[in-house]
Amino acid sequence: MSGFVDGAVVAGIDGSASAVQAAVWAGGEAVRRGRPLRLVQVYALPQVKAPVAFGTHEQVRAGLAERAEGWLADAKAAVLAGHPGLELVTAAREWSPVTALVQESQHAELVVLGSRGLGGFTGVLVGSTAVAVAAHAHCPIVVVRGRNPHELPPRTGPVVVGSDGSPDSEAAIAFACEEARLRDTALVAVHAWSDVLADGMLRPHPLQENAAEIEAAERGKMAEQLAGWQRKYPGLAIELEVVRGRPVRTLLERGEAAQLIVVGCRGRGGFTGMLLGSTSQALIAHSPCPVAVVRPGGSTK
């Protein structure tokens, strides 16, 4: 039995310092949301043709399970040192990390991962594995990062959300608004447009329209989208930034002063394919703060 806890904040543990930092960050998120925290370590038997060289399958399995429990105990101690009294459970699971995380997301309010890994989560944020988790998860996913690999994630600054004005970005905005409220900070909604790109592809011909007119139209579309959220969160300071440029560069720049970046995993315009290729890789690899990925239509609970 895996003992799923419905509505918990789930943190993936793999024995790395990055995962422990992510777990402590997840603990703070659980406290803000009034939710329990579930620490999960996923391990799998190595695929070898001659397992006798490493001991029997049961010996290897027992060793991996023991190591998993040790990593979970270390992460639990770190979390409770920063958040004493937090309701916390742990689970060591033998399975594929991606499959296990996606299953965890069916029950979780949020899944939190570190930006670098060891053990069972090695490579979980590299290439197709990250795309798979974000593409199939049933709740928002957060990748915890700091200004540099050895720094803790920032705790001050606004929440920044990237939006393209499409219905698909509504879930990301909803998540970002709630995060800003929970953190008692401002929300900066960023929309980047380009006269070179259209739907993520190079335009066959340069735009003939006046750039100022395009920007005014884009700002009007974004203002209309945000108006409903401002009414829902009347006490939340929402700042709208419409800029001419590339979405990734713009978000990375705004992230330098932020405590969280929120993006949707699909969209149109500048944010098309946010989790399909170089755009997502750039944010995950270089963001100076945690990054939340929210699927359109997915639960933000």
TrEMBL record:
Does Repeat appear among the keywords? Answer: no
For whether the record's keyword set contains Ligase, the answer is no
Molecular function (GO) terms listed? ATP binding
Residue span(s) of domain UspA: 9-145, 158-295
Which InterPro entries does this one have?
Answer: Rossmann-like_a/b/a_fold, Universal_stress_UspA, UspA
Family of the protein in this entry:
Belongs to the universal stress protein A family.
Under what name is this protein listed? Universal stress protein
Source organism per UniProt: Amycolatopsis vancoresmycina DSM 44592
